[in-house]
Amino acid sequence: MPDINSASFFSRSLYRHTPGGSTDPTPKYYVDASRPDDTGNGLTAATAWKTLAKVNAMIAARSIVAGDVIAFRRGQVWEETYHKNGTAYCNNVFVDISGTAANPITFCAYGEGAKPQLLGSYDLSSTGDWTQHDGNIWRSANTLDHCGVDTTRNDIGNIVVKIDGVEQSTGRKLLGASNHDALTSQGMFWYDVPNKYLYIYSDGNPADYYDDPFGIKAVKRSRSFYILSGSNYITIRDLDMRYHGECMVHMVSGDGNIDGTTIYNNTMRWCGGCEYIGLNARAGNAIENWCNNSNTTVSYNYIYQVYDAALTVQGQDVGDTVSNVYWHHNTVEAAYYSIEWFSDGAATHTGTRIEDNVMINGGDSFSIVGSGPRDDGGTKPQGFRWIDNPDAAPGTDCSFQRNIINFGSGSDGYVLRVHSATNVAGWTWDYNHYYPDNGANYWSTGAGRSFAAWKTFSGKDANSEIEDV
After folding, report:
1. Which of 107, 126, 160, 356 has most Cβ atoms within 10 angstroms of its Cβ?
2. What is the reported pTM?
3. Domain range annotation of the chain
4. What dotted CATH number matches 7-119+220-466?
5. Per-10-residue mean pLDDT for the chain, 469 residues long?
6. CA 322, CA 325: separation in Å to the nearest integer?
């Protein structure tokens, strides 16, 4: 990989993920996990609400309105998810309300210290959280049931622990019709969907084996923020979202539209890994635009360990529009796909700008088993993965510029994969810096190509650089 301590690397990248000075917005409502309960009115730090359940109840009651600022106390942790009747996923916060362009609804931080953490995990850190099933096969002592009306969607996408002070996945997840008898090495796990139990192979009680005070985080099929169609002008900033098996921020417009979403200066760690139902594969995206979206800005976020994509636009159909999506100055590390861009059907893409992002150690995510492909046997890892309908119209007034893409040394995949030169015809694509970091990592536009051949084929990247390291 590139020497990220070198002056040349930092001259290109450091400024890109360090936001300029900004002050926290003034809260309308305060949320503090150290409070005894939710009986306060939330209007001062001394009368703050305690739980995410209270925040969701206020949203459901339409008590949160345009211009309101809901602020979570820095240094606090919320490990709770909310299931709204009629939906099949659990979330930290379910957003089906709108602000306005002049008065957005803002979810943010207040106080001193580390960013507030919103988790989507079960804490299984006590020896009492596990029972010995058979030999080295251990089972969760209780059922893990979190998806409400559709229990077939219950799943555990990952198990995160600390070993020698470093957060990591315990090991490979077995899918679908597998069973606990197939668990054969330390850390392998399987979730029994019909019976809602988690099984893991462990030399002794998992809470004893993984005895770091960090504990054991079993990652639910969940989202941190679920933004529903018609929920416009929502701002999410300065938060730390962790251990969600589906998405960190999921904007789902369906036949409607979502306008004016801003996602700024958040930290997102350990996303995805749940089974994609019916495909015997795993999935999960940190920030996902689904179907119609407009005026979405994603900037200065740090995204780490994602299975599948850190940033993605997908789900469009005939007549759908994606306009003025601006992703800039984000840092993505260890995502299977740093960017996954779908150009589906006859959807219209206009005004997209993907600029000044740093994407490093691509492919080195928890989806990799050793140095091989992802553990569900899917496609190879890619820095920028473009999925298209061959008949899709090219984008207009779109830009992919001044980005850094580095591929992890243990990965076998594509730094850049674009299916046809037509797809990028409407894009300004230049001044990027690519670090393949592996002789097996080559350019693909329907076929493996060298960097020079890619430039000739596409007519792009005339002033971009490539460095083999």
Report:
1. 107
2. 0.93
3. 7-119+220-466, 125-212
4. 2.160.20
5. 43 54 88 98 98 96 98 97 75 96 98 97 97 97 82 88 93 82 93 93 97 95 94 98 96 89 98 83 91 94 94 83 94 92 77 95 72 61 73 80 81 74 84 75 62 84 84
6. 7
